[in-house]
Design a protein that fits this description.
Cyt_P450; iron; 13 helices; 326 residues; Cytochrome p450; mainly alpha; globular; single chain
């Protein structure tokens, strides 16, 4: 038996996320995890969430490794019902049988992953992005210098700036383009701003749809409409960039891979008549990459900020492995 908060009849544990009644706040999910860990230990089960499977939280690194190493060839991960519904019902006309790897499991997940894993996991492909990712990191540092105040402090919405850096980095890989997310707001392209807004809307609403009582399954709620609108925007803009790259390759009369081919070009070469494959991969990379990367970097930066002595230690360690003037 996995320990965890006991669910109530009918309401399960969803009541804990209801304002004024429950004491769990989706906007403070980190504090929820902290409380679960302190009270129930390294492995916690949150059962009885209406409209979705039970959740198991693993807070121990060794146990996390054990979970991943013990997974079967086609793991079953029935997560994110809202995204699953979007891919398999609302936009089945677009996704068809290629729903990607997020909110998908079993044979369908394995079939998609098998087609894209080779170009994604090749070290030579990763090496192509050292310079673009470094350029994006330098642009982010310049952006921090610009927005900090006279006390060397960044604004309250600094996490949004980290989201922009993360999105810009992922777009360089997944879309083979520079979006300009870190440019001054006055010079941002309308399409880039729309993509940033859509991703922020997605992350703002996904927790509500996943953890609170799923009224969206019955009613077309305002939260659900915003969520679907955001996903449509991300999908459409992603497909636009994929199509532009495909047309460029066709004009060049060459969709074959070379040593310098980007990840996007390699994926497009797998199935030249199916650009949706690259679009769905890019969409999944964006949905799971932006928030996770941003949260990790924000946590690291915060911990470094409150432990100045560790900053110098980190600088010394990094200086030992990086080339001079980097």
């Amino acid at each position: 038996e996995v320990p965890g908060p006991p669910p109530l009849p009918l309401l399960g544990n969803s009541w804990r996320f209801i304002p004024l009644i429950g004491d769990y706040r989706i906007e403070n999910i980190d504090q929820v995890c902290w409380r679960l860990h302190r009270r129930y230990g390294n492995i916690v089960k949150l059962a009885g969430l209406l409209g979705r499977p039970d959740m198991v939280f693993v807070f121990d690194a060794d146990e996390i490794e054990r979970v991943f190493r013990s997974e079967e060839l086609m793991p079953h991960r029935p997560s994110m019902p809202s995204l699953n519904y979007y891919k398999h019902v609302l936009r089945k006309d677009f996704f068809g049988e290629d729903a990607g790897v997020i909110a998908v499991h079993g044979e369908q997940w394995y079939r998609f992953r098998s087609r894209v894993q080779q170009p994604m996991l090749q070290p030579r492909t990763a090496k192509l992005y050292i310079q673009p990712i470094e350029e994006t990191a330098e642009a982010f540092v310049d952006r921090v210098r610009l927005i900090r105040n006279s006390d060397q402090e960044v604004p309250d919405d600094f996490l949004n700036e980290i989201h922009k850096w993360s999105l810009e980095s992922i777009a360089r890989v997944a879309l083979d383009t520079r979006l300009g997310c870190l440019d001054d707001s006055s010079s941002l392209k309308a399409e880039t701003q729309a993509l940033i807004d859509a991703i922020n809307t997605f992350f703002h609403n996904v927790g509500v749809l996943e953890l609170k009582i799923p009224f969206w399954r019955v009613f077309n709620t305002p939260t659900w409409r915003k969520y679907i609108g955001a996903l449509d925007t991300i999908t459409n803009i992603t497909m636009k960039h994929i199509t532009a790259t495909m047309e460029r390759l066709q004009q060049q009369g060459n969709v074959e891979c070379t040593a310098q081919s980007s990840l996007l070009e390699r994926v497009l070469a797998l199935e030249p008549d199916n650009p949706k494959l690259a679009c769905i991969l890019a969409l999944d990379m964006t949905l799971v990459g932006v928030d996770t990367t941003s949260a990790a970097v924000a946590s690291i930066l915060y911990m470094l900020s409150i432990h100045p002595d560790k900053q110098q230690r980190l600088y010394a360690e990094v200086s030992e492995v990086l080339p001079p003037n980097t």
